[in-house]
Every structure is written in structure tokens, then in C-alpha cells.
Known about the structure:
The structure is a single chain. This protein is mostly helical. It is built from 17 helices and no strands. The longest helix has 126 residues, at 302-427. Residues 1-19 and 320-327 have low confidence and may be disordered.
Amino acid sequence: MLRLLLLFVFLSYSSIGTAISSDSIRTELERLENEPISYELMLEHEALFTKAEKLNYPYGKYGAKKWIGYYYYNLGDYSKAAKIFLEAYELSQELNEPLIESDALTSIAKVYYEIGELETAMSYYDSVIESAEALNNRKLLSEASAGLAHCYAKKEDYAKAIELLTIGLNYYEKMGQTKNALIAEFNTGYYSIKNGNYEKGLSIGKKYLDHFKPLKDTFEMAFGYSLIGFAKHQLGNIDESLLYLDTSLFYSDAMKIQRLSIQLYEEKALAFAEKGDFEEALRLQRIYSERNKELMKESSQGNIILLELKSLAAKKEQQLMQSQLLINKMYVRQQKIYMIVGGLLSFLVIALLILNKKKQDVTKGKALSDIRNELIQSELRRKEMKASKLEERLESKQADLTNFALDIARKNEFSTELIERLTKLQKSSGNLDGLKEIIGF
């Protein structure tokens, strides 16, 4: 009923003439990223893919398609997941962005891992890790490291697996991505149990369940119960272990998590055998064998998937060769451009040096001219001062000469008067009184 209601909502929404933007699709993809995995959520992503296709929005198409691939991957339907991941990879080629292409290759590497092609999966993960480090993208590095960790765990190198998972765990905790951090920690807990550290596995399982149980995320709750059940089984608490394993099996069957359900039947069979209930153990073992056979039958297309992936690898290699040829041509052209630009730059540098030299000469000439003018002005001021002093001296001498002339004139006047009086005295010689008067006695 809920599925039909959601489909009705989507059809109604698409029939309304409301404009759907690429931003709204991106926002919706980000909103749904941390939602619990469900069939209804897969329908929403299919609807988003259709909208992105109508808008020809490549990022939206890739994001929605990749999520749908992971939905089937988590269900254990690797054949369908592989086909969708290949479609997502083709979409990543349209974007021509190394980061998105590496992200798509990570998804394909997961399929290689699931069909047992460990070495190929590891080579893919190594390639993605190299790209992630070159791009300095910690998120992609964390995802690829987690994938590589599962490969090492498959080889029973659990210490190396835990080491690689810690890279992602540290990154997700730093970025505040709680769900991703818990999933990374869950995997470290599972491999800790495999490595003999049962208490650590139990502690992580409880933490995982305590987080997702209040959220009613039944998909993740199935894994939380399973981890506690596995740990308690190894610690010898068989009855408690069976309670957790039963609860996990209930949720995993409801959510159609085939791989986990099969693992739980096997674990329960071992637990009942240890209790001495061989009849129940045999029943569970038969269910495990039938379920596993069905899964193997569904996964029998692994060879076809492998051929498709190898075809993709060959195509990618051919693209890389073509890209390398193009890069070589571009390199030669670039070198020519560098030579031309280098020549032009050299010419410009020389021209600038010449202009700068001329500018310096002009500046220097102007400076010398200013100094010369200053010296001339100084000399003129000196001569003016000298002329002024000479003029003052001349005026002083003129005044002296004038006074001297006046003095001479007075003396001449006095002499003339004296002569006249003496003449008069001569005429009246013998008149001593007149002489005394002239002399001043």
C-alpha cells in the first residue's frame, strides 16, 4: 500500500507543471543519502533519475543510478548491481571528472570482490587510492581503503583490514559523518571477532545497535544484532547468542539481506551443534545449504559479469591509449607554445630593460640638469649679492665724496673770504686791529 501511495505521489508530482531544477535534484539526493535503505527509497531514486534525465543533468543521473546499484548490491543481487554500476560508469564518462570516474570504479571493484576476483578488485582499489591521494580527496580514499580492507580480510589478514578501515573511521569521525563512522567501526568489530578479539566486537555491536535502534533503522539493526550474536557465540554464551541471531535473522529476512541471512543460518547451526541439539543443527544446515545454493545460482552469472567488466577494462585501456596519444600531441603543441611565449617574453623583457635604461638616462639627465640649474641659480644669487654689496660701497663712497666736495666748497668759500679780507687789510696796511680781528685775537 505504501509503495502504491509513493508511486501516486511521484506521478502526481510529475504531472504538475512545476519546474524541477538541477539544484532540487541534488538537494534531494543529499537528503536521501543517510536515509535507511528500503524499496521505497529505491523508487524515489528511480524517480530522481527520470527527472535528471529529462533535465539532462549528468550529476543527478549518476548519483541516482549509483545509489540504485548499491541497493541491489546490498541485497546480494550482484548481477543486477553490476549492470547498474556499469551504466553509472558510462554516465561518469560524460562528466569527464577524475573524482567521479574513480568513485564509479570503486563500485565496480566491489562487484569484483563479491564474485571472487580478489586480485582484480585489489588492483582497482589501489588505482582509486592513488587517484584519491593525488586529488587529496579523503572521502574517496576512505571508501577505497574500506574496500581494500575487505579484500585483505578475505585473505584472512584481519590486522591489515582493521588498519585500512581505521583510515575511513578517522575521516568520518572528523567530518561528523556518524552513520559512515559507525559502519566503518562495525566492520572493524566484525574483523576483530575474526581476529580473536571478541570483547571488542561485542562492544562495537552494542554501540551500533544503541544508535540505530532508536531510529528504527531495521536494515542496520539486523547487522547490529548479528554482530552481538557472533561475539556472544565466540564468548561461549550460546543461549544469549541465539536470541540475538534470531532477531537479526528476522530483520535480515524482512529486508531481504540474503548474504547476512545465509551467514546467520550457518552461525545458528554451529551454535545448536555446540548445545548438542544436532537435529536442529541439521535442519538449519540444510536451510543454509539451500539458501546458499540459490545465492550461488543467482550469482552464476558471475562469469558473464566478469566478461562485461573485462570488456569495460579493455575499452578503458583503449580510451587511455587514445588519451595518451592526445596528451602527447598536446604536449608537443604545448612545447611549441611555450617556446613562442618564451621568445615573446624574452623580447618583452629586453624591451622593458631598454625602456628602463632610457628612462634611467632621462631621469639621470634631468637630475644633472636640475643640479646644473641649481648651480647657475646659486652663482647668479652670489653675483647679485656681490653686486649689491659693491653698490652699497659705491653709495658709501659717493656719500664720502659728496661730503668731501662740500667740505672743499666750504674751504674754498672760506679761503675766498679770507683773501678778500686780506686784500682789504693790505690796502689799509698798518691797521693792526683789523689783522687781529681776522686772526681771531
